[in-house]
Amino acid sequence: MRKLLLYNGFSNLMLEIVVWMIYLKSQGWTITQIALLEGFFTICQVIFELPSGLISDRIGHKKALLLGETLCFIYLLAYFVPKIHILLYISFLLFALGLALISGTDISLLYESLSSKEKQNYLKYASVFTAVGVLATALGNFSGGWIAQYSWTLLFILGLSGRAIAFLLCTQIDTKNLITTEEDSKTFKLLLAELRTFFLREKKALPLLATTCFSATAVTISYQYGPLILETLKLNVSLVSTIFGILSFLGAIAVFFTYRLSKIIQEDLLVWSLQSISLVLFALFLEQKLSIILLSLVSVNVVYEIWNVILENKLQALAYANVRATIISVSNLMISALLTTASFLIGALGEKIALVNIVGCLNVFLLASALLSFYLYQKLA
């Protein structure tokens, strides 16, 4: 458990994740070119999510994590040649595959490492696991901009070092005593058949996935394009990095207390309340005031960590053991498809409409869809 938590920390220590758009813009990329690259990345995620889940359930979760870390390491190398656009596209393709292999696999490995008794308190363990990852992200967000202001080259060298450490830590994770073992008898055909059975039998799974995906997409868009929005409002890269570092740190604190909070306030009410508040905050983006945008970005990204871990807990409780990573990959696939659509929409409108207005309107629509989906889930529950 401790080794898995430590691995999760270094895997999420992505120094470039907040500032990469600013970096490419400083290297001559336009907002449209950056949005198209982001769109290409999310298309790749759509393509890779389901296959990566099947591969993970087939070859074993530890092997999938090691392969994912290797691809993420290779992706970082392309930042040393930002003028060669085709290499950035290839690297983002590899990054999409790497993240697809890691995402869902890590949390599945956590679930399988728990005893039957511990699984009853999975929300508690998932909160700690998520908090570690978010804290690492906070450190990466906070330090990334300051390091970049000193040297972009140093930023990417340190990023490569973090991925190398994550790979080495992953090799030390013991998978011998997992409750669910990896079996050679699992074929892709059988896994797909079991996935189909899951969605046919668990009628509430689809609306649960939908509310997870719509809400995650909205917050991800604000997280991805937030730095560019703040940069257009004349904030420098180190200040943007500091803001997102604080944002992630507060999110880690929030998710750490999610389990205790769920004992005080009913989980469904928490999801309803937090998503409704976030919808209103995104609508306030249209005011185009720096103070309001900062408040909205920080607040929404913090409370998202609470409702997301609750929804993830509900999904894990429904999931079938043999296709656990695959089910999560279906969720990630839906998110990637939505992000792809959003990225190309932003790319098409980015030169005509203010970015903050596009993001605000998109996220209001997405969260409204998430709330409707959650209502349908409750009707079927």
Automatic annotation (TrEMBL):
Claim: Transport is one of the keywords in the record: yes
First-listed, main subcellular location of the protein, grouped into a coarse class: membrane
Domain Major facilitator superfamily (MFS) profile: 1-381
InterPro entries tied to this protein: MFS, MFS_DHA3_Transporter, MFS_dom, MFS_trans_sf
TM segment ranges: 5-23, 29-52, 64-81, 87-110, 122-144, 150-170, 205-225, 237-257, 269-286, 292-311, 323-347, 353-377
Entry annotated with the keyword Transport: yes
Location in the cell: Cell membrane
Membrane-topology annotation of the record: Multi-pass membrane protein
Protein name: MFS transporter
Organism listed in the record: Ligilactobacillus faecis
